[in-house]
Amino acid sequence: ITLDKTLNEKNTDIKIDGWAEVPVEGRPKNNEEEKPSTAPSMIWEANPEFNEMEIANPMSVDLVVKAPEKIKNFTVSVDSKVLSGAVAAMGGDNSYTYEEGKPYVMDLIGNAVLIENLRDMLPTGDKLYQQTQVNFSLSNLLPLVLSLDPEKGSKHIFTLKVEDMKEQTYTKSLVFVAPK
């Protein structure tokens, strides 16, 4: 082997017959850089670990939803003994009856009745569809739970599901507890 000292830097693969190539940990193979994920994501600055939270009035549940490939579908499943039926009625679904573990799924882009009825409480319709970033707040919806006299210590689960134009999904459940 002869070293050419006239070059400052030269990236070259050196192969020696009979020696196995051992990849270096932490480095992408074939000198390819890892591309950042374009899948949807969600940030809750006030509760970054998405821990259970006691319901209060007022309360701040301000999320940032990011979808670099643009939002295609956005649903919120409401698993709440007191709120699911009320939200179903807001969505024009009078046949829904709450059963534990069978939440009402709010389609915030495709359900025109729900979009109309919730437009002052949540981003809906075009405020979500094909957006790459949305400030999504449940702060106006959660106090409704308290107004419906929930059982003390009962859990109210909101599962947010975002699907982008590449059909990548992100799902996150937020658990809220009625005060004891």
Notes on the structure:
The protein contains three helices and eight strands; from the N terminus they run ββββαβαβαββ. It has helices spanning 84-90, 112-118, 143-147; strands at residues 41-43, 53-54, 62-66, 71-79, 104-107, 133-137, 155-164, 169-177. The strands form two sheets. Strands 2-8-7-4-5 form a five-stranded mixed β-sheet. Strands 1-3-6 form a three-stranded antiparallel β-sheet, with no helix packed on it. The model has no long low-confidence stretch (mean pLDDT 89).
Short description:
It is built from 3 helices and 8 strands; from the N terminus they run E-E-E-E-H-E-H-E-H-E-E. The longest helix is centred in the middle third of the chain and has 7 residues, at 84-90.
